[in-house]
Design a protein that fits this description.
Chain A is mostly helical. Helix content of chain A is about 55%, strand content about 5%. The longest helix of chain A has 16 residues. Chain A starts with a helix and ends in a 20-residue tail after the last helix. In chain B, strands 1, 2, 5, 6, 7, 8 and 17 form a 7-stranded mixed β-sheet that branches. In chain B, strands 4, 9, 10, 11, 12, 15 and 16 form a 7-stranded antiparallel β-sheet that branches. The longest helix of chain B is centred in the C-terminal third of the chain and has 21 residues. The two termini of chain B are about 30 Å apart. The chains are: A mainly alpha, B alpha/beta.
């Protein structure tokens, strides 16, 4: 039985053949993720997870189309403006994945990664449960 | 059938049973400590916590075991057979070390008038002990657990705390300043959490996960005394569910139980101590009914299982105009003792105010939940990041923990026609919050609202629903009258001289103190009594 990754790569090959475009790979997904979130320090291991999850959930062709639509956007706000309505759910899923660590699977729960969640990065003073966080008595700098 | 023999057999390895076991074993007594559930591996549990997204409920880090079921958050009917009118949302743990694995760590004393509710206020019952009787044992309990506290807070004390107080959080300091404008003193909560290295355990490092687990052991848990007991020679039998207390008319003759594989064991001892909790102890006694004890063991009074009490919590959520920088530090480090003991306690319940360092985690406002809501609203990039920070850092959560009175109609029963995986009767529970407690809630909410206003919030709301303190109490209460109580002031069963019960099950009333320090004080007192009894 082919692996999930092999199935995905086969699908990508079809996209490439059909569209005669550059392959939509992990590197392209990184650019797309950085464009949509505005964050450029995205964890490489987590990125592989979300690449697999998002392309399987929505299809590599739609993700590639989203990447093409937002290509060159100077920031996340402008990128959001460029997202075509029919691809809005794909863009939202990618942003949710990076900020919340979960991508809904459409009625079957969610794929979860609990590391590298941008929501916690937005409150850098905060103590995340289970990780010694140091002082709590002073106002953060 | 495995046969086990000891001088003293203790059922339940939480803080109560573990302390009795440690003290007796250190004195040379042959102790057998029997625990229904498994041992806890701190590193494994902490690892499970790190794989949770925001803040894990206890069952996430303490996985279910079929032979020792217990209630879990959000699914009370899966454990209790509720018999109305209210649904009890309390949880507890059946593990070696007990529920202290995921207690908050609050270690406050009952107040002198808490022991005299009938005499002073005409409600509830009096304890057969006074505060002065228990005060030396509170001192000892604070040393044993390792309590950090402010000596200017709380009832009179004869000795200093073993550690200086845990520092107030920045959020606490803001709440305290607001409280001062209302004449309400917000001060450091006494906590069994190390403010300095103590008892071979490190100081708190601000892991922000007292519930469900302190990853470094800075917070006390029952495992501390289980380890002491084992070092002193006590035998700990884990994954061993006691199913029956066997008794003739004069005394307990043995304990019967089952292991997860269905194999049976039997324990005989000179003395027996039940230290399960306010739910499992009466369940066991009631489930042990026999021809000799048709209403349940040690239940000639018909008081076993009755007078079930817990604290009821209401919480207020607000968003401060200026950030208070939560979540940081231990989950709660300050509160107000002022509303605990009003002169109006004849008419309505007293309550304790708690300030939380958690923000709205647990109330739908964790950073990832805030982020998800804002993302779905369309925010992106720097606007999104700023909005997440602004919301999370401003979250204020204040709560009031309100007392309940004993009511014989509030009771635990053994439901023999519904059984768990090991064939044990499920727990029936009839629970009514009651008018007295509701009047206390009605008094607490305006105070929380005023305090929130004084903090300076742009918006506030009452958290939906009511929470429990997870302090099941009262179901084998102590008293001088054998017709109205299950154990005497020495925690000996009125009906059976070689049976003792320890834990919050024996509390005649619960006041507004989290019960663990009082449980520990009573356990130390019982251990001394048993040593003297030979």
């Amino acid at each position: 039985m082919p692996s999930r990754r092999e199935v995905l790569q086969a699908g990508l090959a079809l996209v490439i053949v059909a569209g005669c475009a550059a392959p939509f790979d992990e590197a392209a997904f990184r650019v797309l993720s950085e464009t949509l979130t505005g964050h450029h320090e995205l964890d490489g291991d987590v990125l592989l997870t979300w690449f697999d999850v998002v392309t399987q959930r929505f299809g590599a062709e739609r993700v590639a189309a989203l990447a093409a639509a937002v290509h060159g956007a100077p920031d996340a706000i402008e990128a959001a403006r460029r997202v075509p309505p029919e691809l809005a759910e794909v863009a939202e899923a990618i942003v949710l994945a990076w900020y919340t660590g979960a991508v809904p699977t459409g009625g079957q729960g969610a794929i979860v990664r609990t590391d590298a969640m941008l929501a916690w990065a937005c409150v850098p003073y905060a103590h995340r449960a289970g990780i010694p966080g140091g002082t709590w008595a002073e106002r953060p700098a | 059938m495995t046969e086990l023999v000891a001088d003293v057999a203790i059922v339940g390895s939480g803080v109560a049973g573990a302390i009795v076991a440690a003290r007796l074993a250190a004195a040379g007594t042959k102790v057998l400590l029997v625990e229904a559930g498994p041992r806890v591996d701190r590193a494994e549990a902490a690892g499970l916590l790190l794989r949770a997204r925001d803040h894990a409920a206890p069952h996430v880090v303490y996985p279910d075991v079929a032979h020792a079921p217990r209630p879990r958050f959000g699914a009370p009917d899966a454990y209790f057979v509720h018999q109305g009118p209210d649904v009890y949302p309390g949880i507890f743990e059946r593990r070696v070390g007990g529920t202290t694995w995921h207690w908050l760590g609050t270690a406050i004393r009952l107040l002198p008038r808490d022991f005299r509710m009938r005499s002073r206020f005409g409600v509830g019952v009096d304890w057969p002990l006074t505060y002065d009787d228990l005060e030396p044992w509170y001192v000892e309990a604070e040393r044993e657990l390792g309590v950090a506290g402010d000596p200017t807070v709380g009832p009179p004390r004869s000795a200093p705390y073993p550690m200086p107080p845990i520092p107030l959080s920045y959020a606490d300091q803001r709440v305290a300043a607001a409280g001062a404008t209302l004449g309400l003193r917000i001060a450091a909560t006494s906590q069994a959490r190390n403010s300095v290295a103590y008892g071979g355990r490190p100081p708190c490092a601000g892991s922000g996960s007292c519930v469900p687990i302190c990853p470094i052991g800075a917070k006390y848990d029952g495992g501390v005394h289980v380890a002491q007991a084992e070092r002193a020679g006590a035998q700990v039998l884990d994954n061993a569910v006691v199913t029956t207390v066997e008794a003739d008319p004069r005394g307990v003759t043995g304990l019967r139980g089952l292991r997860p594989d269905g194999s049976a064991f039997r324990v005989t001892a000179k003395r027996y101590v039940l230290a399960c909790n306010g739910i499992e102890t009466p369940r066991l006694l009631l489930a042990s009914a026999s021809d000799v004890w048709p209403a349940g063991v040690a239940n000639r009074s018909d008081q076993v299982g009755r007078n079930f009490m817990d604290h009821v919590l209401t919480a207020q959520l607000g968003l401060a105009r200026d950030p208070i920088f939560v979540p940081r530090g231990p989950l709660s480090t300050a509160g107000s003792e002022d509303p605990r003991d009003p002169d109006s306690r004849g008419e309505r319940a007293g309550f304790r105010v708690e300030s939380f360092n958690t923000g709205w985690i647990g109330a739908g406002g964790a950073p990832t939940q805030v982020a998800a809501e804002l993302i779905r609203k369309g925010l992106r990039g720097p606007e999104l990041d700023a909005a997440i920070r602004a919301h999370v850092s401003a979250q204020v959560r204040l709560a009031a923990m309100v007392e309940q009175l004993p009511d014989p109609q509030n009771r635990i029963t053994a439901v023999t026609d519904q059984r768990d995986a090991l064939g044990q009767p499920r727990v029936g529970l009839r629970w009514s919050i009651g008018a007295y407690t509701r009047a206390g809630l009605d008094a607490a909410r305006p105070l929380l609202t005023s305090l929130m206003d004084a903090v300076g919030v742009s918006t506030q709301q009452t958290e939906p629903g009511l929470a429990a303190g997870h302090h099941p109490s009262g179901t084998c209460r102590m008293g001088a009258d054998p017709r109205l109580s299950v154990v005497d002031a020495d925690l000996r069963a009125h009906d059976l001289p070689n049976l003792h019960i320890v834990g919050s099950a024996t509390f005649p009333t619960i006041g507004t103190a989290n019960p663990t320090l009082t449980i520990a004080a009573l356990a130390l007192r019982l251990a001394a009594h048993l040593q003297g009894a030979g």
